Structure formats: structure tokens, C-alpha cells
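Per reviewer request, we include the raw input and output of the structure prediction for the construct analysed in the revised manuscript.
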Amino acid sequence: ARFAQVNFVEMLATNETPQWWLAQYGWTNNFDEAATNDTDNDTLPAWQEYIAGTDPTTNSSAFQIRTNSLDSTGSNIVFCWPSASNRLYNVFQSTDLVAQAFGVVSSNIPATPPVNVYTGSMGLDGSRFYRVNVRNP
């Protein structure tokens, strides 16, 4: 009896961007260059758009906080951002934009496509500034 073992490995470009993902947006060769290009001029190279789950060919597709509102009590801020499957998000907060002293207030938030929603405290001592980042699990 003869046996064969086959292992399939995903083909990746620069920064571990899958070639299949680049191909679905029209790149069919020189995948390493395609992964580092910013064809939609939104300041993010394609490999970062892959991680964010945004469209690298449309500058209106952006990873950013989309809404900003107070809850009914006025003590919490509620915001959302575009969410992509199989991603994890972290929310950071600061009281001082000059010092850029952001601390993690919530980490490893699972994706809930098409958007994730976060509710955070406004605090009693002044302004709060938030930012969100995304990563592959």
C-alpha cells in the first residue's frame, strides 16, 4: 500500500496578506507590491485594509469611529466602527490628546459584523478621547 500526504498552505504576500484577497480586488501579479500600495489614497496600504476588513480600492471604505452620541443618561458615550469577521478589537481611552496617554479600556472584543458598538463612561473630570484598533486573532 502507498500513501501520500498533502499539506495545503495559503499563499501570502508582504505582511501576510493573502494573495486570494488581493486577487479579489483586481491584483493578479506582483502581490508583494500590491500589498504595500495605497491605490485608493486613503493613507492605508492594502495589507492594513485587509486587517481592518475595508475595501482597498474605495477611499470611502475606512476603519474609523462612525457615530458618536451620549446615552439617555448623558453619562456614557456610545460609538461604533465597521466590523469584519474573524477580527479582534481593542478600545483605548485618554483624557489628554497632547500627552497621547491612551490606556486600554477593553481588549479582545470579538467582531460583530457589520459593526461593533461600544459604550464607555464620560467620567466626571472632563473630556474622554477614544480610539480603536483591530487585529487578526
